[in-house]
Each structure stands twice: as structure tokens, then as C-alpha cells.
Amino acid sequence: MDEDLTASEAAAALGISVATLYTYVSRGLLSAIGSDASRSKRYPREAVLRLAARKADGKRGGHLAQASMHWGLPVLETCISRIGDGRLYYRGHDAVALAREASLERTACLLWDRAQHDYFGGACAVLPAALFESLYAGTREIGPLARAMALLPLLGHALPAQTEDEDAMFARGAVLMHALAATLLAAEPSALPLHRQVGAAWGARPAECELIRAALVLLAEHELNSSTFTVRCVASTGADLAAVLSAGLAALSGPRHGGSIQSVKAMLDAAMAAPDPAGIVARHFPAGGATPNGYMHPLYPEGCPRARYLLDALSSMDFVVPEAAPIIAVCIEEGRRRGMTPNLDLALSAMQLAFGWPAPAAVILFALARSAGWIAHAAEQAAGESAIRPRARYVGRF
Fold it and tell me: How is domain 260-355 classified at the CATH fold level?
């Protein structure tokens, strides 16, 4: 199939006249393929569609550009993930389909565009347990994100110096993901698959470990959220990968990002302790129809497929905390009654409640999983060889 467009087809896709199309070519905005005779020239489909997308962004510019960090204009191009038609894709693969059987390690290699490679085989061999024990001194009492945020750069310095070779970067990334698992769990580094490391730390049964595996896959990447954009900014400066991951953890630690899960878990805990759980859940919904934490997602108006998969899987399992089942059912039903679907915050909090996992379990899963996507974005940004430096619109005094 010919992937090139005629002049009239390209002009139609761009919403311009053929004469304007030729002006775009003369200005270097678009390249033409073919002879000097204008009518025989053709235009690469991908280039035309990319220019059309940029034109659409421009039409939404001006003061609307200030919304670009919260569900507004796209600010970067990526080949890593796509959200469309209510689904999430990792390099063209449906994330929910991957969650049925893939590991986080396999998903990471896919996100890194190295699906045929295995960077994790000996990833923990260069992480001596004695080093971790010394680093944990004085940090076991602080939260897992803060501990990992502080220790990852130190661990990065203990590894061989980072090079510009991409395969070496991914090998380093695999080592750092093992290091991140250890620091988040305050455990010795392990050669076990990452989901089994988490399960072992929490005393999870095999069925729970399978749900942990699926959750890690579904959390591995989600386009340009706050922490991923932070990662790309830091990676664009040429910073060491350990520092890049630490920056992602810093962004994730905020109450409007990873911290939002805590308010959902607090609601579930209150409902568990109350004689009227349904009343507690109902009061979680603000007056006036505002959306509470744990429900809806701007990119999935019909419902988050990741949350749906995890909650469906959870509903088929025996809970360690059986009293959690009716609480979770009430949360889902109350949202349905108000036309609101659960998002990942509710799904992760429900899993934590159902199995009695430790308090920071949800954010540990999020941080460990998302490190795979952060590394993918760091590599993609490094390949561009340019620093991210947006301009500000000055609105102060003159």
C-alpha cells in the first residue's frame, strides 16, 4: 500500500489549499517526493499527519497553552505509549492484554524497544547486599519513596560510570530497577522476578503475586504525567539515570500525584471501621457532583481499563481480609450510581485493603512499575540530544 499522499490528499488532511501546500514546502515545513513537476510530487503520510497535529495544537494555543500540563496541549512526541479509544498501548501492544501474562521485566524491554533482549538476567549481581545494609542505616523509619529518592543516586555512584551507549543504558536501568525494588521494600537485592520480590516482602499468596504482576505491568507507563515529564526534563540535561529516576520519585511523592492514593485508602479504612460503611463512602463524594479521588480519569471518560481489569481480577479472588469485599462493592456501586467509574487509585487501594498489605503498598507498586516507563522516556529524550527548555508567559508588572 502506497503510504505517500498526492498534493490534493495532503492539502485536504491539512485543511489548506494546494497552493498553500506548495508554500509549506517552500518554507521547509513539509518535504515533497518526486520530480520537479508539482502535480507528480507526493508527500509522506506520516509527515503530513504530524504537521496536521501540530496545526491543531496551534489553533488551541494562546492562553490555552497554559493548560498544557493538565490535560491540554501535547508538548512532546513519543513512540513509547498511546492512549486512545479508551485503551492504553505500549508500542502498539494493548497494556491490558500484556497484563494477562507478561512480567514487568518483559514489559520494560518492550517499552525500551528491545523486546527480544533480556537485560535482567544478572541485574542484581552487581548489587552487594552489604552496601544496602549500610545505606539503610537511619533510613528504615522514613517512607519508601523518600528512602529510594535519597539512596538511588548513591547506588548509581557505586555502579560503573554511565556511557552514551543505549544498550548499556538499558542494562544500567535493569540494575537500578532491582535496586529500586530493594530500597522501596527495605530488603536485600534479590534475583527473583520483581513481582515475586514484592510478594515475598508482603507475605503474599501465589494468587496475590499474580495480581501484583498484572498491576506492575499496567502501571509501567502512562504517557506524559507529572513524574514522567519531570523525568524527561532531567534526562534532557544529560543527568545520570539514577538521578533521573530519583527525580521521578520526587514528583510521584506529591499529594496531587502518587499521594492522591492515600486519601482513597483513608476513606476505605474509615468505611471498614464505621457501623455505616455506605455512609462513609457516600460522604467521600463532594457536593455539586465534583469528582472525588479514586474515580474517573480525564483520558478515559468511559472508564479506566487498567482499574477495570484489576478490580475484575480482584472480585474473583478470596480476600485475606474478607470484611473488605462489601466495602469495595459499595465503592463501585456508589460510583456507578453517580455515573463515575473507578480509577487506578481506587483499584490499588482496594487491593491493599483486601490483602492487608502494608500502608505504602500502592505507592510502592506505582513507583517500581513506573520506573520502567521512566527509563524508556529517559532514553527517548537522550536520543533527541536537546534540553527541554519551555518559555514562560510574563504576566507581572512592566
Answer: Cytochrome p450-Terp; domain 2 (1.10.230)
CA distance 311 to 66: 35
Instruction: Give the DSSP letter of residue 89.
Output: E
Look at strands 43-44 and 93-94 and give their pairing: unpaired
pTM for this model (two decimals): 0.84
Residue with cell 482499574: 307
The amino acid sitting at 235 is A
The lowest-confidence range among 67-76, 92-101, 268-277, 286-295 is: 67-76
Handedness of CA 196, 226, 260, 295 (dihedral sign): negative
Q: Any alpha helices (H) in 220-360, and if so which ranges? A: 226-235, 241-252, 260-273, 277-283, 305-315, 324-337, 344-355
Architecture of the domain whose range is 4-58: Orthogonal Bundle (1.10)
Distances in Å between the Cα of 138 and the Cα atoms of 142, 156, 186, 194 are 8, 19, 12, 25
Task: Output the DSSP codes for 171-235.
Answer: HHHHHHHHHHHHHHHT-----S-HHHHHHHHHT--HHHHHHHHHHHHHHS--SS-HHHHHHHHHH
Cβ neighbours, 10 Å, residue 233: 18
Burial of 243 (0-12, 13-18, 19+ CB in 10 A): middle
